[in-house]
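Students often ask why we bother predicting the structure of a whole assembly rather than each chain alone. The short answer is interfaces. A chain on its own may look different once its partners are present, and contacts between molecules only exist in the joint model. In this exercise we take two input lines together and write out one structure for the complete complex. Read the inputs first and try to guess which parts will touch.
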Amino acid sequence: MSPTRSIAIARTTARLVIKDPSVTIIMIVMPLIFVGFLKPSLEAQLQQQGYAGVSGAQAGVPGLAVMFAFLSIQTVCMIFFREHFWGTWQRVRAAGATGGELVIGKAGPLVIVILAQMAVVFAASAWLFDYRVTGSMLALGLLLTGIALSVVSMGVLVVALLKTLDQAMVVGNMSGMVMAGFGGALAPTSTLPAWAQSIAQVTPTYWGIEGLREVGLDGAQVADILPALGVMGVFTATCVAIAAMRFQPTDTKVGST
Amino acid sequence: MLVIEDVSKSYGQTPVLDGVNLAVPAGRIMGLIGSNGAGKTTLISIAAGLITADAGTVRVGEGRSASVDVASDRRRAAGLVGLAPQELGVYPMLSVRQNLVTFAELAGMGKRATRERVDAVVDALDLAPQLAQRADTLSGGQARRLHTAMALMHRPAVLFLDEPTVGADVAARGAILDVVKELAREGASVIYTTHYLGEVSDLGADVAILHGGSILLTGSVKEVVDAHAAPSVSVVTAGVPPSLPGWRPSPLEGGHTRWDAPVESRTANPTAVLADALSRLGAGTTLEAVDVTPASLESAFLAVTGQRLSAEEVPDVAHA
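Now the answer. The structure tokens for the assembled complex follow.
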């Protein structure tokens, strides 16, 4: 594994993201719009739960930030599949890049992009909707990092398993939506059927959203969110392990829709 | 130096390469020619380390001991090899400079070396005015030059150019040929595949004919033409098939058929061969065109393989 080549690939990935930031911008703006009009009803829900006088953003921002982070699986897929469509994948391979270097070089910047995307949502929510972190900022940062790693590892898994961009986009978006739903992004998990609550326990979205809500509402510290980090760590490791077994840099991918 | 020894490759049950041997010394250009599907791209992909051969070895670099086995030491081999694949491969959203810098960075070049090399490469390929321009705004010829330039950034000792002038305009083609010649002068070994046989002569290249998964012959263009080329004679007919014993028919569009004179007849006076063929056209057969091609690499290819290089390469026939 050559750090030089991984860094070179990462720089190119960063250049490509910078040249076309539209998806990232949408993934930042959309949760803010949703928080804007869900805020009053979320405040009522929080009052029922005993959080009087608290901004509804405290309940809405974590779920929506995580949901749109998971919808960014499509960005991960695009970054890989477009290289095949552009004919640059085999050129980079001919320059000596191994599968591992390609994955690290492509996935690394995307972890930062998705982390930054969620950080902007939280920062903008603080400014626009009076969102406050009552717990540890370090815990918040660790949770966001765990979520970003979960998203990117799942995106890489989708890329490893599927052959066409169409398949990847459908599977990526659907799985992101479903996991966000089970995780409590659309409605509190406690309101879901028992079977759905059971499934939620094994999703990184549930643990991420719960952890973020605890940091926002309950003053959670790093020790309090360790279980959430553990689940997200296991999810990420599982995705990476399966992707490592299935990913073949020589595979032909259909990179256009 | 590039040495390909006994390379074989099959896709499933279909053999593509069967014991290919080829050597390209430093400073030489090898025009690798063959019909579509002959295995040129597969051979280049193996030699560039993109796919593995079922058998055989490819070594790049100077000398037996100092050279690198492409399959077992891909990393070192990649530093010696440059590849411009047949299909255009550029980052459309990045500028010309960013595309070139990407491949310099992949090769581990420093910032100063990269800057100097970018300047040299864009000068050589007439891309300097487009340096800041996004690749998706380039003309077809400019994009093709950028595609080639990306393979040159790290001054490869062995360069594979797979039909680099397909889709290129006259200026792009000239620039690419000049750069290839310059690289060879600097000591690179170049494998150059093309269907435009004139380019092989223009490059002063040696030629290797790949057919049926094997290299049938190698040599200088002059050697190959002198040894194998003869004038070729063909006629194109419609309607009732004529009786032309030994002539090889090839169906064309529109119900036409091209008849190629047998190889052994081409040493005779081509005019006489043609006259004999015309005398055999009976009622109901319409003569659409005749073609007499002087001895050339194209006719040598036809003589050696029994096939024309490709449909696109058939010279315009003189309509009767």
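Check your guess against this: The mean pLDDT of chain B is 87.
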